[in-house]
Amino acid sequence: MFRGIAKATALLAALVFLIACSPKLDWRTVQSPQERYTALFPGKPDKLDRRIPYLDQEFLQVLEAVKIDDDIYSVSTIQLPANQSATLSKLLSQLQANLIDRAKASGGDVAVEDAFYKTADKQRLSTKDYLIDLKSNGKSQQLMRVRWINRVGPNGDSWIYQISVLHTSAATENAKTFFAKEEYENFFTDFVPE
């Protein structure tokens, strides 16, 4: 009888230990050769395409995203043909302004910090991280960290990448403190465009 209780207790302890060690995030490298990047996602992302209107034309936007608890990790890609390169800075400015203006209109805060990313050929290039606190009725409702990167492909096409994490529930910390955690930093650090 004592052996049966001891075995049951040992089995229960092992099960509790395995559950406690089970990672919430299932990190995996996602290669997206069509969009010319590699990223480390905390789960298997879903992929969707849509056309976004800009002036008198439309561009294809490809989005890969995964939702883990209250967080949405996403990489959005827009490809501009070489003959549209003059549109790049205007389109990038519009994408940034849409998000930042929405945050400010809600009474939210936007902080900008210097950051770096690595390319597939190991270059370390500078960029900016936008840390956004979206508010409603003066209270923090969502936090977001977003980074825009643009790259020129070998054929002259331009690529705009938007890498972001949106925390969808209210947080007591500001965006800078909240997104300094390792699971968020990994996502941004391990995004590698070609």
Describe the fold and architecture.
By secondary structure, this protein is of the alpha+beta class. Mean pLDDT is 84; it is low at 4-23. The N and C termini lie far apart (64 Å). It has a single domain, classed as Protein Transport Mog1p, Chain A. The longest helix has 20 residues, at 2-21. It is globular and about 45 Å long. The protein has a seven-stranded antiparallel sheet with strand order 3-4-5-9-8-7-6, sandwiched between helices. The protein has four helices and ten strands. Strand 8 (139-152) and strand 9 (158-167) form a beta hairpin. It comes from Polynucleobacter yangtzensis. This is Lipoprotein.
- Written as H for each helix and E for each strand, in order along the chain, the element string is HEEEEEHEEEEHHE
What is the third-level CATH name, the topology? Protein Transport Mog1p, Chain A
Q: Structural class given helices, strands, pairing?
A: alpha+beta
Q: What is the subunit arrangement here?
A: single chain
Shape: globular
User: What is the number of domains?
Assistant: 1
Our count of helices gives 4
Largest sheet: 7 strands, antiparallel
CATH architecture: 3-Layer(aba) Sandwich
> Strand order, biggest sheet?
3-4-5-9-8-7-6
Low-confidence stretches: 4-23
Bin the helical content: 25-40%
* The CATH class: Alpha Beta
Please tag this protein with its features.
194 residues; seven-stranded antiparallel β-sheet; Protein Transport Mog1p, Chain A
